[in-house]
Amino acid sequence: MLRLVLALSLALAQECPLGEGTCSSQPTTGLLPVPECEEDLELKDFVERGKALCNPRHLPESLRPPKKVAGLYWLKGLPLPDVAACFSTGEWNQATLTLKLMVWKDFFFKNDFTGRSLAASVYQTGAYYLVKYKDETLSEADITPHASRLASPAALAFAAISSFPLVEQTGLTTPGSRYTRPSYFGIADYKVLTSEYEAWKILDADLQPVPDNVATMMKLLPKKIGDKHVVKYSEGPCGEKSQDSRTGDGSCQGFFLELARQPQLGLLHEEKELKIAHVTTKGCHAEYSVICLEGVYEVKESHVCTSGTFEGPAAKSIQHSWELCSSQDQKVNLLSSVVDLTWDVEIPPNTRVEGCVRISLADEYPELSKVRGTMEQQRQALVAKKKEVGGCPTFRTTSDRLARASDFEGSGLTGVVSRQYLKLVQKELSTRARLWTHTSPLSSNESWMDSTIHTASLATFLPYFANRTTAFSMCAALNCGEPTPFIDGPMKFRYDQVATAQADPAQPRVYSMWSTPPTEECHHWTLPLFLSSGSKEHRQWRMLLDEAGFETMHTQDLTEAATLLDAAWLEKLRHALGMKSLLPAPTELEVGRIVVQLVFEGIWRKKMSFNEAYAITPYLEFGKMCIFGKRGKHMGLVQPLALAGIKRVALAFARDSPTAEKLFKLIQLPKYSNLKTLLESSKKPLNDILLQDVMDASLFAGVLGTTDLATKCVKSQFKDGNHVTMFRKDASAYLHELMRTDAAVGQFTTALTKDETWNLEGHKVPFPADQAVTMSLVTANRDPRVFPDPDVFDPDREELGEMLTWNGKLKHVMARNYTGAPRFCPGYHLSMKVAKDVCAQMTKDLSAWGGDAGEHKKIEGLVKIKAAGYHGKEASVAYYDFHKEKHCVTDKHHHDEYIGCFAAEDLEVLDPNGGRPKTLEEEYNMCPALVPAMMQMMLHVLAQQVETQSTVGWIISRLLGKQPTSENFHRDWSDDFTMGLYAGINLIAMPMYASRHSDSVFIPRRKGSVEVFSVGSVAAPDVDIDHPKFVPVEWYIPQPLLDYGMLPGMTCFHGFLRQLPWDDMLEDERNTWDLVMNLSQRSYLRKEEWVMSFYKGYKTHDGKDNWPEREVDFAKMYWKRDEWDDGLEKAIAFGLIGSHRLEHLNPPVDFGGESLPFVIRLNKFRGLPVRKGFGKYEGDLHFTKDGYPAMMELADGTRVARGDKDWQYWKFAWRCSLITVITLTDHLHMTHFRSGNVLATATRKTLSPNHPLRRLLSVFTFGTIFINLQAMHTLIGPRHVLHRSTPFVQFEDLSDAVPKNLLPLTEKHKALLREEEWNKLPAKVQETPYYADGKLLFNAERQLLKEFRELYSYGRLGFCDKQDQVTGPELRSLLNELVAENSRSHYASSLNSNATCTQFFEEILMSYVWTVTGWHRHVGTVGDYYRDPELASFSWREGERSARPLQHMQMTTVAVFTSALQPKLIEDYSHVFQGVHKEEQMLQILDRFKSQLHKISEEVEKRNQKRIHDPDMGFKNIHADPKIVECSVAV
Q1: Residue 864 forms beta bridges with which residues?
Q2: Which one-letter DSSP state was computed for residue 1108?
Q3: What does the alpha-carbon distance between residue 917 and residue 1104 come to, in Å, rounded to a whole number?
Q4: Three-state SS at 857
Q5: How far is CA 533 from CA 509, 540, 623, in A?
Q6: Distance, CA of 1216 to CA of 1529 (rounded, Å)
Q7: Interior CA angle at 763 toward 760 and 767, to 5°?
Q8: How far apart are the C-alpha atoms of 38 and 57, rounded to whole Å?
Q9: Confidence band (pLDDT; 50, 70, 90) for 1277?
Q10: DSSP structure class, residue 809
Q11: Are 1141 and 1330 in contact (CB under 8 A)?
Q12: Residue 1209 exposed, middle or buried by CB count within 10 Å (0-12, 13-18, 19+)
């Protein structure tokens, strides 16, 4: 408003003489001159050019505003013609927290007469604002207007009656991004709100756009300025451009590569061109580099997308800084090293970025001018800078320190409240440091209430984190590893500082815990804890304890934890009910109640009663609060009465113990005179204070510490089976690593020996001698300079002996080395002994992925439930759940009624062959008798009504979603089976299906043995214990109802269809194409059009066509003059589905003067009996060296030459035979049953849910059991669609014969597995897409398995030993089960249980993975062939060159039902490995695999572009493209 007052008093209301826009070279507006330099900005360029115009690079560092304040703000809702304000270029006064904004140069104006007039007036008057913030949170300020050159009465009066607060809006994702700016007018307390607008940050302190704010501005600002531009004024010289990175010779000055906006900050100065980041987002991979181009740094970007479009940041020149951030949809990896600003070590390339990668030009950080040279030189310079500023080297002001808390969004914190709380804690630390600059901690000048509030803030801060380690690590990272205030003194975090203090033989101590005075209700000042190392009293304390038996207390026999657990009722209940199912892990109190008895028995050499243990156990709750000392007492955290009651029982227990008796005698000896004098000075009886001190140590260190250790051991194993394995392999190493990662004692307190001045939070703080200093053990034990990969839990790490727990380096503590660890814990060995025993007993029933699953009593069939409450109910066993260690059952008669899971002793077998059906016949017999009759009646009625096109039929058709352009079924060519099958699949089932993606692949939860369902020799599980979601409705229906309701309903439907009458209709005038075309609603040029009319317009649940998308238009390319050109067979054999069956003949066959070196043989199938009237499968088709068919040899030896009158017929018969044989043998049996079914069954039966290989194979076996169970009913079952649409007589005989004739997988894929076999293939076969493209994909999958094997196969949790033998129990079980499954299913197999680890992964498992992915896509894509009955079908009448309508329509339902879109191989499956052992390394392997798949996809696409224009091919083959290939056989 002041701007308006000044404008009215100085500007004349006249038009700009030169019109709107830039008025002149020496601008004026009316009679008032405007500043010399101006920048005219179009709205579309406003944000981008604003980065240069709002850059504070010319402002001295000391005057730059804090990051929270800095930025360019849009003035949303302001009616005046000023558009935006740049706070970055204002002058900051840190002492007063005030920002000075010169209106004419720090604001942007509308570029018209009103805007320019306003700018001129404020320029003439020197108008400016003082924005004074109330505190260092910078969340609220008062704005006062001033005018340096004119103080008109109007302006003065205006200032006197106005008030302009600036208030940060709440609930912001980005702090400081939006402020409210109300205007109040009045006198004294009588003020009225007259207007209000908002300041929205559109460029942040780093001049990066704030996307949401920018988007809103670009929508609303045009309403204010119309088609006008925006103008920004500045001082001369005019026309200055940003030359940040340039030098005179056209080179670049350098830049900083940073990791920002995350807890782990990194930084390094670079000058050369550099790869900086790799991005994965929405089907795209991108790589970013920085290059120097004509003196300007530019970001270069290159990307590859397999789906969608790339939406990442575009390439651009760097004006000041540029950043690339991770998000939920965008993953970023660092590609170059930087220095970790907390731990001063290298952050290596390929590190996953949680926040952002940022590039800042060198002059953005003038204070870091010494950070140059090698990485080591820069590291040293950064260390020096951190000490100089008392925190992160980029900190300039206190506000920067407060803003640092925003980098921890979502990092170890829980919820929005806790994130805000972290910001308050950071403010508290900074405030404490500033207070200590003039008031020492605990001095009389420091308010007790004030310091108690500080203590309370830290005490309540801890629970927001997973543990103290997380909390203190975050404190360390907040200040980049430099010391911070902590309660009543400073805290240090780094290993070298902590280890030096801990090993000091003269380590000073004072009466302090956590740097605050203890309370005597918890600990007396005579405890050795408070005595300096090397003092006579401390040495005598240690000697006394050793002589009294502490040195050997761990060698005595203690009561077994198992005995004490047997008396614990909750543990009994947990074991009885199945500890892993209904009850959670034991609580700290449960564990502690056992620990306290064993620890006290070890220390005092006396057994404790249950009542005594019960009375002392509450110390676990009350005793741990003693760490807060007197401040905790004043806050109510320490409860003196409760502690006194607990200690009374404990002292009574100990007083008559052997250890107490010995202590009382020893203290009288002269060698303990100094200690005796110290104790007597307490004015308490000598024996009382001696016993009290030892008891306090026993409780605080012994009971609390050991309980913490044992509890974490138990809970970790309940949570993660990996920990079960690690604990059982080496319990000591496991417990050591547990304490390194989350110690029971997280810190110790030492003291200064002289006056010192520290730099805390940027303040010079003087500390007197004897000032308590807290040393953080938990952060020291995560220091990456000592412990590589410090956050990885690895009991096998070589440097465990260096960890700082139990009051010294572990290696010295274990050796009881007083020289290396002067204050080592005397109870270490006892604590370890007790913790191991308790933990082992409480976790003994847990199963680990590295351990044997154990045998279970085999129960199957019909059972009676003996458990209480079930009253002998009869049920059917569904499967055995290894995780619950129970059999899961359903109702005897209704499999949709899931009952529950029971232990073996709760089930009585009534009939091992009863219960759940195991064959098609049993299954159909269990369907209610009324169901088939009702289905038969409904099918007849529906068919009749639809066929006669009655009103009822029309309604039914619409309800079923029948398209009006779709042809109708008619009884002269169709039957009830075909109509029912078509309606069930195309009209009912497919509309419920939706495309599935990687998020449909769940983390496995069970390990189980499932009942099998058999058709002939083929057997498959009848339940998938991983429960994939296949149709949208599955997300809303309870899983048991799906398993035992929907699926049985589907099987009853298919069973009903099998019982329907069957007539092939080959012997009369029915079922002919002439009849069909006469009955059609419209005319068709070809039979293909009629067939596709039944599917055109029909969609899945997510809008995809039911019929699979066409890849090759065969008719367009090869249908010529009403017959098929020979190029069709060439395409099938050398470009598409038949390539793998090509044989190279040496010598070639000579025929008709031609050499025929290639053949695809089908004559061996001639012997399969067919039904009357159908043609037989046969034909060995021979090809020329160029790939064209030239001669077919029939089973009887007849040779049919190209051009013979029967040539077209036999080619049709050969095509039908080939594609059907591939469908039946290569696709159905080899891929689905031999590979997918065997692999899915074996993995679920042998591998625990958290086994890394189970997680990996969950991707490759997704949906396998479900789809195979459907195939058992529809494809290989007798009298169903495959039987009826093919010509075979006994279909089950085929299912028996095919498995025995399949080659072993390793033999089938030998050309891809072994290079010597590849080299045997002729060049023309190697060039076929199956082999050429497939080899790329095959090698990528093999590299995935190789890296997986190298990551997991060796070491403490390895699957294999150094001799490459499979040693992991579950992996060996998997290998044995694969052998057994192949044997049970009568598959020819070269598998044996003696395979090496490398053979298992890179040959055996690789063969399975390839078969269910690339091979499956190659042999399973048949939609293009089966859409045309003249191209190929399952059967044909002998002598005819097309399939009959009935059989072909039956066959098309198979093509539709197996075409639903499934998760693609290239998708992101990282969620499947959540929580798995070595998760981060596994995710890196997946990232490399995905990156390779993207490269393969790009290469395949390049090859396909060439193939399209190749006259020898003319079409694409996408069956090895990872964005097309499915991850499993789920389709």
Answers
A1: 874, 908
A2: P
A3: 35
A4: coil
A5: 8, 11, 25
A6: 23
A7: 65
A8: 19
A9: confident
A10: B
A11: no
A12: middle
Alpha helical stretches, state H, 998-1119 = 1039-1041, 1047-1059, 1073-1079, 1087-1093, 1114-1118
Contact between 679 and 689 (Cβ < 8 Å): yes
Token digits for 223?
A: 């309403």
Ranking 509-523, 1236-1250, 1357-1371 by mean pLDDT, the lowest is 1357-1371
- pLDDT band for position 154 (cuts 50, 70, 90): very low
Contact between 751 and 467 (Cβ < 8 Å): no
> How many C-beta atoms lie closer than 10 Å to residue 1365's C-beta?
13
Mean pLDDT over the full length of the chain: 83
CA 725 to chain centre: 24
In the chain, how long is the greatest CA-to-CA distance?
Answer: 123
- pTM to 2 decimal places: 0.65
DSSP β-ladder status, 352-353 and 1199-1201? unpaired
CA distance 651 to 696: 10
Of 84-98, 105-119, 956-970, 1327-1341, give the range with the top mean pLDDT. 1327-1341
Burial (CB count within 10 angstroms: exposed 0-12, middle 13-18, buried 19+), residue 150: middle
Contact yes or no for 121/80 (Cβ under 8 A): no
Q: Please report the sign of the dihedral spanned by the C-alpha atoms of residue 539, residue 545, residue 549, residue 553.
A: negative
Phi-psi category of residue 329: left, alpha or beta, with phi > 0 → left and psi -120 to 50 → alpha: alpha
Strands 489-492 and 772-776: parallel
Q: How far apart are CA 1112 and CA 901, in angstroms?
A: 51
**Nearest CA-CA partner of 1157 in 984, 1321, 1335:** 1321
What's the sign of the alpha-carbon dihedral 1097, 1103, 1106, 1107?
Answer: positive
State yes or no: cis peptide before 237, omega within 30 of 0: yes
Query: What is the strand order of the sheet 1154-1160 is part of?
Result: 1143-1151, 1154-1160, 1180-1183, 1189-1193, 1199-1201
The length of the chain in residues reads 1531
- Assess if CATH 1.10.3730 describes domain 862-916: no
Spatial contact of 1426 and 1433, defined as CB atoms under 8 Å apart: yes
DSSP letter for each residue of 380-423? HHHHHHHHHHTS-TT--SHHHHHHHGGGGTTSS--HHHHHHHHH
Stretch(es) of the chain classified as CATH 1.10.630.10: 448-842
Apex 245 CA angle, 244 and 248, nearest 5: 100
Q: What's the one-letter identity of residue 720?
A: D
Cβ atoms of residues 1080 and 966 within 8 Å: no
Domain 448-842 of CATH type 1.10.630.10:
yes
Q: Please, what's the b/e burial string for 422-437 (b: 16 or more CB within 10 A of its CB; e: otherwise)?
A: bbebbbbbbbbbbbbe
Q: Of 744, 630, 647, which is closest to residue 698 (Cα–Cα)?
A: 647
Instruction: Tell me how far apart the alpha carbons of residues 601 and 342 are, in angstroms, rounded to a whole number.
Output: 44
Is the CB of residue 7 less than 8 Å from the CB of residue 117?
Answer: yes
CATH 2.30.30 occupies which residues in the chain?
A: 862-916
Is residue 23 pLDDT above 70, yes or no?
Answer: no
Average pLDDT over residues 1169-1188: 95
Contact present, 571 and 585 (Cβ < 8 Å): no
CA atoms within 13 A on the CB side of 879: 24
1458 Cβ neighbours under 8 A, 6+ residues apart: 1267, 1420, 1531
The DSSP 8-state label assigned to residue 879 in this structure reads: E
Q: In one letter, which amino acid is 5?
A: V
Structure-block tokens of residue 1258: 């969950």
Q: Is the peptide bond before 1147 cis (omega within 30 degrees of 0)?
A: yes
Element housing 938 (H / E): helix 930-947
**Distance (Å, whole) CA 598 – CA 607:** 8
For tokens 């942040």, what's the residue? 204
